[in-house]
Design goal:
This protein has 197 residues and is an alpha+beta fold. The chain contains 7 helices and 5 strands, in the order H-H-H-H-H-H-E-E-E-E-E-H.
Amino acid sequence: MILAASLLLTAWFAATPGLAQDAGAIAFAENVSSEVVNILEDGTKSQDDKLQAIATLLDEHVDFDLVGKLVLGSHWRDATEEQRQEYLSLFRELVLANISRQLSFYSGQEFEILDAQTLSDRDTMVKTRVEAPSGNVYRVDWRVRHEGDNFSVIDVIGEGISLVVTQRSEVGETVNRRGMDGLLASMREKAEFTVID
């Protein structure tokens, strides 16, 4: 299951900034994973309640504004302030709904934190493995950014595929074909089927 040594690691690495950063990121990832599992295994919650609880948790721990800007890439500079605000709102809504629904299909997968790698003075890659009841194993890495004492997820890399890079390609293609207004129209259509607030 989730590693239980993060607090010990934090204390042990405290004297070394890079290692302390990694230990903090591991502790953060461990805590978020544990909270997600607790929600999903709560027999008192309906599926809709679980989905809403996961969305609330993710909203607290994912920097959706930064991820949204990274996904929009160079098109962010060309967008008006009104377009930016609507885009960030729709992006958050759609990603929250998508991730929450995926997690809501949890069926006893085992999560394990494997390692952490310092990427910069602010970013750490936390490497995890997920083993399904079928025995299939998946690699999921989390890019975690820390600002002071706060940590947040800014990218998820599943089996080597970055959420930010993949979404940036799709979003960029839409903007190039239909413009920023076309992208927003497409996102609004998708959001009509979204029930996460």
